[in-house]
Write a structure and sequence with these properties.
By secondary structure, the protein is of the alpha/beta class. The protein has 16 helices and 12 strands. The chain has 2 domains: 6-28 and 286-385, Aspartate Aminotransferase, domain 1 (Alpha-Beta Complex); 32-280, 3-Layer(aba) Sandwich (Aspartate Aminotransferase, domain 2). The longest helix has 23 residues, at 287-309.
Length: 386
């Protein structure tokens, strides 16, 4: 077991941060690199934008922004030409939704495990175009991933134009078999949109192998970058049709596919420029080993929590990475429990709802300890007795 690494982070020592799945913590040295880029901007903004960030306003390549792009592309095994930096997955999915033409009765097929704002985005798109958003109900507990694929695919029909699916679901924390879904969809000429918000940095991500039309993920969750750092990878067959959310000078000078979508006028790129430092930090501290150790602890404690609460596990461990969801007793109020954990114990934990059931989503990272999980369980048991 590698030594705990909390001292490398800026987290308040008095809190128990068990919600890395919502907003990740940034290591001190990565945050300092981020601030260094911001300082360079303020020392001479013109020099920063026009000379230091080569490639930002011209076709000249080789600058730090392109290094960040190619480093990230190498980490996720993707074509760097199709990588766009975006503040978060929500922005990326809005860009995708605005670019895909839908006709009346076209279907966007998804599941009832998707993130609420993403469903809202596509519900509006379908309302405006008279298309149909269909949520396939995926019951718990789950069986095998092969069974999931076959069950989901039974809902595909001649009107299905888009498949929208999480790589790792938000409320229920399940790793879905997106590679096989994308493989079948490509053969059927159905557009695939994968919401990988929780994926990069938590699981081994191979975008070329997944082969989605659109894949987006947040680096500021599990990859340890500053907040507001995400990417969208667009398959080469879809790049011409993707519309920039913001029309800028890039619409005129056309520096590159990625920059056409990134140039929003005066924009702070420091978070993206710190990506190489985040990747170096992960390598230096054996993060692959730490991920494996954290997952092992999480799987063990998920069983402890389920036994203590008398609840059935929603899936076997093959569906899990470093987040796991536990169904709480029906009478549990999400708002009251969330407030209780913070007010009484300074515990940050994700409490949410899915199909009217209250869910506790555990997150465990290298700076966490089993003592924190023990404290959470004790606090949870005390709350349910009230």
């Amino acid at each position: 077991m590698l030594p705990n690494i909390r001292s490398e982070f800026l987290l308040d020592p008095d809190i128990h941060y068990l919600n890395h799945g919502s907003f990740g913590a940034c290591p001190r040295e990565v945050f300092e690199d981020y601030q260094n880029w911001q300082s360079k901007l303020e020392r001479n903004p013109i020099d920063y934008y026009t000379r230091q960030l080569k490639g930002l306003f011209s076709k000249e390549a080789g600058g730090p922004l392109e290094k960040a792009r190619t480093d990230l592309a190498g980490y996720v095994n993707a074509d760097s030409e199709g990588m766009i930096f975006t503040p978060n997955v929500t922005v990326a999915l809005n860009a995708i939704a605005s670019s895909i033409p839908l006709n009346a009765r076209d279907e966007v097929l998804t599941t009832d495990h998707e993130y609420g704002t993403i469903l809202a985005t596509w519900a509006r798109k379908c309302h405006e175009t008279h298309a149909v958003l269909t949520e396939v109900e995926i019951d718990l507990p789950l069986g095998t991933q092969d069974e999931f694929v076959e069950y989901f695919w039974k809902h595909v029909n001649s009107r299905t134009k888009v498949i929208l699916m999480s790589h790792i679901t938000s409320a229920t924390a399940l790793i879905l078999p997106v590679r096989e879904i994308c493989r079948r969809a490509r053969k059927a000429e159905i557009i695939t949109v994968i919401d990988g918000a929780h994926a990069v940095g938590q699981i081994d991500l191979d975008i070329e192998n997944i082969n989605a039309d659109y894949y987006t993920s947040n680096c500021h969750k599990w990859m340890l970058t500053p907040k507001g750092t995400a990417f969208l990878h667009v398959h080469q067959t879809r790049r011409e049709s993707l519309k920039p959310l913001v029309i800028s000078w890039a619409e005129i000078n056309q520096p590159s596919f990625s920059l056409r979508h990134e140039m929003w006028g005066t924009r702070d790129m420091a978070a993206f420029l710190s990506i190489p430092t985040a990747l170096q930090f992960r390598k230096k501290h054996d993060w692959n080993i730490r991920n494996t150790e954290a997952r092992s602890i999480l799987v063990e404690y998920r069983e402890i929590f389920n036994r203590a609460l008398g609840e059935e596990a929603i899936c076997d461990p093959s569906w899990l990475a470093q987040i796991a969801s536990i169904i709480l007793p029906d009478e549990t109020s999400p708002g009251k429990l969330w407030s209780y954990l913070w007010d009484e114990h300074k515990i940050e934990a994700m409490i949410t709802k899915w199909r009217e059931r209250t869910i506790l989503r555990l997150s465990f990272n290298a700076y966490n300890t089993t003592d924190e999980l023990d404290l959470l369980l004790t606090a949870l048991q005390d709350f349910t007795k009230k």
